[in-house]
Design goal:
Two copies of one chain form a homodimer. Chain A is mainly alpha-helical. Chain A contains seven helices and two strands. Chain A has a two-stranded antiparallel ribbon. In chain A, helix 1 packs antiparallel against helix 4 and helix 1 packs across helix 7. Chains A and B meet through helix 1, helix 6 and helix 7 of A and helix 1, helix 6 and helix 7 of B. Chain A binds a DNA duplex through helix 3.
DNA sequence: ATATTAAAAGATAAAAATATCCTCTATTTT
DNA sequence: AAAATAGAGGATATTTTTATCTTTTAATAT
C-alpha cells in the first residue's frame, strides 16, 4: 500500500508530533530509534519532508527536527504525497496509463469507492489526531 | 497498492476469462499482447498462477492457457494472494511487525475499515463479473 | 576564533522487483 | 519417428527501492 519510505515518514512525523509544544527538537538518532527505522535512510526521508515544508530542521548542537505550527493542520495525505507521490490517489489500480471514467479498467467502478474511502481518511486525519493516540498510550510507533 | 506483477496477473486472468467457454486456449504471446505486459515476465507470472491452480496450461502446438471450471468461482483476492501474498490483507499499514488490536499502530482503527472494504470487494468480485464488463465493451484491459 | 555538534548532500552498496534470454520438456502434427 | 510448437525452468540482466557511508555546511558552545 505504502512504500517503506512512506511508512517511515508517517511514523517519524507522528513521533515528532507527539513531542510537547515548543519543546527541544528531536534528532535523527532519537527519531529513528523511536520508530525503529534505519537511521541513514530515515535521514534522507526527513530531508524530503523538510523540502516539502512538512517538517523543519535546525543544524548544529541541540539541532534536530520539529514541526512548526499546528500539528492539526498537517494531514496524512500530505506526507504520503510528499514521499510516494500521487499514484495512490490518481493512478489506475490495474496499471492503465490513466484512471478515467471514459476508458476504465475492469475494476475501476469498484475501486473508485475504495480509493475515495482511503483518500478521504488520509485527507481528514491530522497528525494531531494520531499523535494524541500515541501520547495517551492507546497506539504504538514500533514493534 | 498492487505490485506490477500482480496487476499483470489480474489483467491476464481477466483476459483469459473473456474467452468464450471451451474455446481454444490463449498463448502467452496473445495474452501479453492483449494486456500490454512484457511477454517473458508475464510467462513467469502465469507459471505462478498455474502452480496456484488458478490457471491451467497445455504445452505443445495449439497449447496455451485456459481456466478450467467456472470463472465465477475465482475471485480477485485469490489472484492477489497468489502473487503478492497476504500482506495487503493482514499486514500493518505503518509497518508494525503485526497488525493487531492489542498493539495497534496509530492508524489501525481507521485503516481497519478501509482494509475490510478493500478485501470485501476483492473477495466478492469474480473473474466473470469483470470479464463480462470487458466483453460488453464497457471496460478495458490496456492503455 | 575554535571546536563540537548535527543535519545536508553526495557517493556507494545491497536488496528486491522487474524484465529478458536460453535451454529443457511435453505435446502435437507431419 | 521426426520436426515443430509452446510452456517450464533456470540463469542472467536491468531497474527501482532500500540502506549505508563519507564529506560538507550551518549552528552552537567553549
Ligand atoms: S481506470 Fe483503473 S482504477 Fe480507474
Ligand atoms: S496495527 Fe497498523 S494497521 Fe493494524
Amino acid at each position: 500500500m505504502f512504500s517503506k519510505a512512506c511508512k517511515y515518514a508517517i511514523n517519524a512525523m507522528i513521533y515528532v508530533a507527539t513531542l510537547p509544544e515548543g519543546q527541544e527538537r528531536a534528532g535523527l538518532k532519537e527519531i529513528s530509534k523511536a520508530v525503529n527505522s534505519p537511521e541513514a535512510f530515515t535521514g534522507k526521508i526527513l530531508q524530503e519532508l523538510v523540502k516539502h515544508d512538512l517538517l523543519h530542521s535546525v543544524k548544529g548542537p541541540n539541532g534536530g527536527f520539529h514541526i512548526q505550527g499546528d500539528t492539526s493542520k498537517i494531514v496524512l495525505s500530505e506526507i504520503v504525497e510528499a514521499i510516494d507521490g500521487d499514484m495512490l490517489f490518481t493512478g489506475c489500480a490495474l496499471g492503465l496509463e490513466k484512471c478515467s471514467e471514459d476508458h476504465p479498467c475492469p475494476v475501476h467502478h469498484k475501486f473508485q469507492a475504495i480509493r475515495e474511502h482511503l483518500t478521504g481518511m488520509l485527507m481528514t486525519t491530522s497528525l494531531k489526531d494520531v499523535a494524541d493516540r500515541v501520547n495517551i498510550g492507546i497506539s504504538f510507533l514500533k514493534y
